[in-house]
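Hello again, I could really use a second opinion on something today. My current little project is about how a certain protein chain folds up. You're getting the sequence in one-letter code plus the fold written as tokens. Here's the protein in full, and shout if anything looks odd to you:
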Amino acid sequence: MLTSINNTNQPFANQNASTTETKKNNKNLVESAKSEQPVEEKKIQYDKYGHTYVGGINVANSVLADKFSEEDVVRWKDILEKQGPLLTVFDRICFPPYSPPVSGTISMNFFDFMYLVEKGDVVNPQYALNATDAKQQVENGNWSTFFKHMTVHGKNVNAAEYMKSLPTIQRIYEMGLVKPNGGLMTFDDMTSLLQQKKYEEQKTRLDRAHIYQVEKPVLEMNTSEKMKQGYRNSI
């Protein structure tokens, strides 16, 4: 129990000792409280093999990891482990039938795929299809038939549950995630797209800065003239 320094029953000489002891005890309490506080880990970490971790979960070669929330990563990992419908969609588009992968090509990261699909924005306007053409691609892919005959661990899946993914598959085509050859954008495609976006953003900032430097003297001159004219009019 802490000793009060305002205790009038204590001799004056002991109050200094009491004060010192109180400060010492207070310091110990603060240090103890600090040690009990959980240390927040960095959201993104990397191991010596180049793997990326978000909230302690390995998201492999993700290029969008800095945009993930830890809650989303946990949910996506569950889909991955349980081989949910969207993992099936991802695998089938990554490696479309009759289109063997090009040697040395790395597929898009599954966590990046989930982030983009759930966000729903157009990723690559060059490949983006309108709703009619995207729907036709879904029909051409015979997805309904594929789900009806699909098995996981040797057992037929709940086709009705998997059919709920059909609108998502259509949206994937509308977002431009699928290339003209029918395959999903690759890791290299995603990296190039991000680099291009950063270049364009940087160029826009530089252009704006240049325009401001050019127009600044003109703006200042116009402001000065307006002030002078206002003064003349007030006379």
Summary: The two ends are 78 Å apart (CA to CA). Strands lie at 44-46, 52-54, 57-58, 151-152, 155-156. The first strand starts at residue 44 and ends at 46.
